[in-house]
Structure formats: C-alpha cells, structure tokens
Amino acid sequence: MSPKTLYDKIWDAHVAQEAEDGTCLLYIDRHLVHEVTSPQAFEGLRMSGRKVHAPDKTIAVPDHNVPTTAGRENPDQMPEDSRIQVAALDTNAREFGVHYYPVTDIRQGIVHIVGPENGWTLPGMTVVCGDSHTATHGAFGSLAHGIGTSEVEHVLATQTLIQKKSKNMKVEITGKLSPGVTAKDVVLTIIGETGTGGGTGYVIEYCGEAIRNLSMEGRMTICNMAIEGGARAGLIAPDETTFEYVKGRPHAPKGAQWEAAVNWWKTLYSDDDAHWDKVVTIRGEDIAPTVTWGTSPEDALPITATVPAPEDFTGGKVEAARRSLDYMGLTPGMKLSDIEIDTVFIGSCTNGRIEDLRAAAEIVKGKKIKDGMRAMVVPGSGLVRAQAEEEGLADIFKDAGFEWRLAGCSMCLAMNPDQLSEGERCASTSNRNFEGRQGFKGRTHLVSPAMAAAAAVTGKLTDVREL
Amino acid sequence: MEKFETFTGIAAPMPLVNIDTDMIIPKQFLKTIKRSGLGVHAFDEMRFDREGNEVPDFVLNKPAYRESSILVAGDNFGCGSSREHAPWALADFGIKVVVSTSFADIFFNNCFKNGMLPIVLPQEQVDLLMSDAEKGENARMTVDLEAQEITTSEGEVIKFDVDPFRKHCLLNGLDDIGLTLEKADAIKSYEERVAQERPWV
Ligand code: SF4
C-alpha cells in the first residue's frame, strides 16, 4: 500500500462514492447545528417534504445569539431577530428529532465545545457544522470543517457532502515550549509565519514534540484557528492523550466497542514516507507569548516586540497595515507592552475550556483587576462553568472583579448583547480581530487566557512571564 | 423539490423592462429565517401603498390575475442583487414559469434551484404571449416542459429551448440534494459497511 497521511486515511474511510472527475460523496459522521446558519436549511427540508437522514448523528445547540446574563431563559432578553432565530432552532430540533441542548440545559454552550465535551467528536470521524471554526474538532484526529447553509441542508437530507480533496500540509512544532507559552501563542505564531492565506487549499496536520505535549484543550485551540491560517481543516493525530480525554464521555463507545475503536484509532497517523505538498517547521523554543497588533490574525508578534510600520511590509500589505494601525489607533515603534486595555474577554471556542480558565485564574488569584477595567469570563459551556465553580475558579474571578457569565459565544462576535463600543480596546482570547468583529469600531488584541488575565490586572498588554 | 408537471394557468402580463430583485422582494424582508412565506411580500412596493393597501392598478391585484402562475415579463427580468429571496417569493406566490426575452444570470440559475422554469423567447413570441396574457382570466396557457411547448389560449403552440440537464432535474424534481438522493444506494451500502467495521460511529 502506498504511504498515506492522516488526512488521506480519514478521507478514504469516508468516500461513499467517487465520480470519474474525483468528486466524492463524502459521508458525514457528525453534523453540528446552531441557530444562525440552519433555519433556511430546515425550512428547505420542510418544503420538499424531506426528513433528517440521520437525526442521531445531528446535534443542535444555540450559541451565537444567546445572552450570557442571568434570566436569559426569558426570550424578552433578546432582540426580535435573535429571538426568532433561537426559537426557530428550538422548533426545528424538536420537529426533526435531532439531539438538542437548549439554553436551559446545563450541557448548552458553544457548539465546538459541546461536541467534544459530550463525546460526539471522536477520532477518525468526519464532522461538519455551518460554522468555520468547526476546524476545532480536528484536535481529535477527525476531519472537521465548516459548510454553508445549502450544504447544511444537503447534509441534513443525505448525511453526505459533495467534495473534492484538498492538498496535504504539515506544520511541525519541534522541541519544547518555554514557560508562559501556550497553545494560543503557538497558533498565533504559526499564522504570523504562514499568513492568513498560507493554508488555502490545504488540510493542515499539526505535529512535532511540542504539539504532542499539549493537552486536548490546547490541541483544540490550535486546530480552532486552522481556518484563520486559510486551511479548511486542521488535524492532530490521536494518541493516548486523546483516548484518555474521550474515554467515559457520554457518547463515547464503551466496553468491547471501545477496544475496537481504540484499535482503529491507533492506525490513524501519517505514514513516515507520506507525501506532503507543503511543510512548515517552527522551533518550539522560539515561540514567545504572542499578541496581535492589527486587524488580521496574521498580525501577530511576540509581546516583547514593537508596533510595526507600514513600510516594514511589502505589496498590498503596506496599505493594509496602514489601515489596521489607523483602525487600531496605534503608532509604529511603540512597545506592544505599553498598549493600554480597557476590556478583557476570556472565552470563545478558542479558549473557553476548563484548562483556559485554570490558566487565567492562576494569574488573577489574589489580585484585583485594574480600576475601570471591564473584564468578563464566559465559560464555553454550562459544564465548563459548573466545573470551574466546583474548582473555586469562579470565586477567584469574581473576587478579582471579573463578571462571571453563562455559556455562549458572547463577545467573540457582535451578534448578542456583549459588544465593544466604539474605540474600546479589548484583550481577547477569541480568534478574530477583524474590524468590527467584537462591536462597531471596537479594537481587538488576540491573546492567550493567561495573557488576557495579566492584561486585566495591569491594564496593559503584559508579558505574563514578568508577572 | 416538487416535480415540474405540465399545467394550465393564468399568465400575468408585466411588460416593464429590468424588473430587479429589489422590486421582486424589497430588502426589509431579508431578515427572515424562512424561504417560504415571502409570497405575500412579492413585488411589495408595487403591490401595496405606504399604508399597506393594495394598489388596484397593479396587475397581480386585479381580480383576473390574482391566481397567476405564469409571468410574461419585459427584458432583463431579475437583475440586481443576487438574493435567492426573489425566486423564493415568486415561487411562494405560486409562480411556476417566467417568460421574457432575457434574464439576469443569477436569478435565472436560482429559478431552477427552486423548481421554477424561466423561458427565454424571441421578442415577437414574447409579444404574442403578452397580448394573449392581457386577455385576462380567460387566457389560460399550457406549459409542457417535456415537449418544450407553450400553448396559448388560442391554441397556438410556441416551442422553447431548455438545457437538457436542467430539464431532467425539473421534470424529476431533482435539486443538488435530489441528485445525491439518486445515489441513495451507495450511501446505504456505505452505512451498512461502516456499521460492521466501525459500529461505534
Ligand atoms: S465562539 Fe466565536 S468563533 Fe466560536 S463559534 Fe462562537 S462566534 Fe464562532
């Protein structure tokens, strides 16, 4: 047999039919659904009298629109159009009989946190969702990517997608990470290096010692942002860390099936002599705590650096950098660690898991957030929230002056009540620093949870290693 | 998608040229979470005044044309924004066929995705159908996609062209999903195989 990459192996295991031109009918093992991109898809089914092909493989949860404040079961807390979208998901999920976690369910949360947490996401699966950050699930060695509304309908109706294969790209992080350096810093550094278009047309496999040593939470942070590097999907080969995380979760296999599953999962790695269309290698030791200064995730630099000047770039990036600096209100040459912050957001599908909250709590423990600072922690799911309360993390945050919220996408995107106002500057653990992403004219600096916590305490972007 | 079957219906004359998708469905109706239910807003700004009263002169408000299933329209129908809400609104109103000398590209494609048949004809044949449509309720036309023919109320037969693949899809009620469902056997046998090999999925 010719050597294969991990991607090749998962792909091959899911081709239900292949046409002569290489177009494949790819079978989908898990379909995650949220309220924003699904209403017309369900409506399409209804109009054509179709059913959901595999309701048992379909999981629905509202996350983008829902408020994260107490009393949100009361729909009056939402503006009209949000309320309608959430209500539509409720009706559709019940009518079509798919798995469903409404806001009143403790398991509700951000779709990409809910899937892995409940054992829906397993190694070697194909996972899709009408959301680009579906890449997150690649951390389990599952092929996971975002789809559009018409494709959502296609998957609902047929449990397949019409697909052509991408190319293989390997991103290797060698050696060890230094203290204070987290998965978020790794992925920001990768995107800073490859650019937001570097992964276009590829599925990326992240590998190397530094990746192997990451927890599942950290691996999810890495794969979550594969899309920000242009790739449709990111992958990390499953190993003991993966199996350990999956074992015992409600929808994970049990008993003899567990043994059989692990046996197959152990075959899911890239063969030594597999062919790569592109390879990027970064030394783990070279990665520092990283922040973004501009309005693209590729505008990432070590916290020890200074704000660049447009002239530091070439081509179209010169003008883009000028525009970014203007939008962000920054002057070239100033130290990144001198940038003053007024808002801190800890949460999102990038960094809203328990480990992220632990890392942030460790920094703020016994401290207070800076006067005038607005800081919030939004757990990625009700279960993460409950665990954090049990571990005493919630009290640490509250004592320090953080708002302790209910689960949802919250300030990751300006689609619910949590938004930045014009000119506000936020250290955020989310994944996109686009213009207006967190609110009209709001300014976003992407950072790790520890760095966000440090900024909340000092009021500036801060090198967490010096705290 | 429903199969496109031969039908006889009322044709409404809309000689205006460049009817754009904003006219077909104004932007205030795009916030919907639905594809259906837009029919009541089709041509909203031409059909209703600012108080929401019907404009009696508008063709689809006239008693003879309220049940129209065919539009005979002026040149370049469906231009402007690519909103799929436009064909959604027309289909929901009950329109199955639009006849014109020309259509905007995206609208033309969107029609097929929604089970509607846009028919392109030379000017003189559109003129002929237009005057037939102007006769009102008594002017029922028959559209036969299989034979690619429109028969006027006078019994005159007009031939039209249609892409063979699209014809096949309309006649069989196939959209992308429909086409995939034609491969249901392949999907089923895949599922059966995986149920053996990886029963935990
Ligand atoms: S947390 Fe942010 S990136 Fe993740 S699904 Fe929600 S809106 Fe999208």
UniProtKB/TrEMBL annotation, chain A:
Lineage top rank: taxon: Bacteria
Residues the entry annotates as binding [4Fe-4S] cluster: 349, 409, 412
GO-annotated molecular function: 3-isopropylmalate dehydratase activity; 4 iron, 4 sulfur cluster binding; isomerase activity; metal ion binding
Cofactor dependency: [4Fe-4S] cluster
The protein's assembly and partners: Heterodimer of LeuC and LeuD.
GO biological process assignments: L-leucine biosynthetic process
InterPro entries for this protein: 3-IsopropMal_deHydase_lsu, Acnase/IPM_dHydase_lsu_aba_1/3, Acoase/IPM_deHydtase_lsu_aba, Aconitase_4Fe-4S_BS, Aconitase_4Fe-4S_dom, IPM_dehydratase_rel_enz, IPMI_cat
Gene: leuC
Pathway named in the protein's UniProt entry: Amino-acid biosynthesis; L-leucine biosynthesis; L-leucine from 3-methyl-2-oxobutanoate: step 2/4
UniProt entry tagged with the keyword Isomerase: yes
UniProt keyword list: 4Fe-4S, Amino-acid biosynthesis, Branched-chain amino acid biosynthesis, Iron, Iron-sulfur, Isomerase, Leucine biosynthesis, Lyase, Metal-binding
Family, as annotated: Belongs to the aconitase/IPM isomerase family. LeuC type 1 subfamily.
EC number of the protein: 4.2.1.33
Keyword Iron assigned: yes
Segments for region (Disordered): 60-80
Name of this protein: 3-isopropylmalate dehydratase large subunit
